[in-house]
Q: What sequence folds into this?
């Protein structure tokens, strides 16, 4: 993968593009425990094995995000090579809309994070809901008097948190089973290809 943001690269970025790239890079590195420098680069070389095993569903600018996350999730080796990005020639316009395309990339990242790591996603959401419900309960209990709305909201939020954690657990088991099935199909495919 070509890295325009590598220390060895000499790239010219508009400030908003550089900040967006840094935000998305850091988000993916944190969520998927990676150490990449440029996840939105379109400069990519892929092995036949990688192409054969990937089912790409993205149709737009967010395809780089999907390729990167799928490679990380499947354990493919990613090698970054510094590439230089030059500024656009005068008179040419970028097709990138920072807000629209940034939102698409963020949506794709969250969607794939939810898909590949459902227990982390829903479990984290559930824990946040439970903590907020306890804060509401504590503030209500130490206030001037019990408030029926605050009590009901606190209980409802705690139940929503428990439900979210349960959903995360169920989806985690389901995802794990599909990953095992996927791995077996890959092994079977390798055996068939090797025998032929």
A:
């Amino acid at each position: 993968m070509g890295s325009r943001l590598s220390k060895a690269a000499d790239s010219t970025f508009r400030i908003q593009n550089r900040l967006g790239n840094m935000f998305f890079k850091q988000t993916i590195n944190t969520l998927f425990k990676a150490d990449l420098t440029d996840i939105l680069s379109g400069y990519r070389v892929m092995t036949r094995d990688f192409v054969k095993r990937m089912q790409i569903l993205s149709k737009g600018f967010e395809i780089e995000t999907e390729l990167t996350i799928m490679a990380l999730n499947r354990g493919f080796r990613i090698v970054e090579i510094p590439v230089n990005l030059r500024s656009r020639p005068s008179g040419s316009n970028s097709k990138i809309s920072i807000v629209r395309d940034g939102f698409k990339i963020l949506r794709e990242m969250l969607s794939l994070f939810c898909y590949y790591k459902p227990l982390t996603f829903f479990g984290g959401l559930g824990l946040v809901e439970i903590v907020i419900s306890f804060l509401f309960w504590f503030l209500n209990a130490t206030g001037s008097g019990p408030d029926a709305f605050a009590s009901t909201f606190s209980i409802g939020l705690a139940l929503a948190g428990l439900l979210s954690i349960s959903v995360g657990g169920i989806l985690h088991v389901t995802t794990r089973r599909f990953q095992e099935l996927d791995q077996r199909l890959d092994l079977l495919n390798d055996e068939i290809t090797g025998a032929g």
About this structure: Residues 2-116 form one domain.
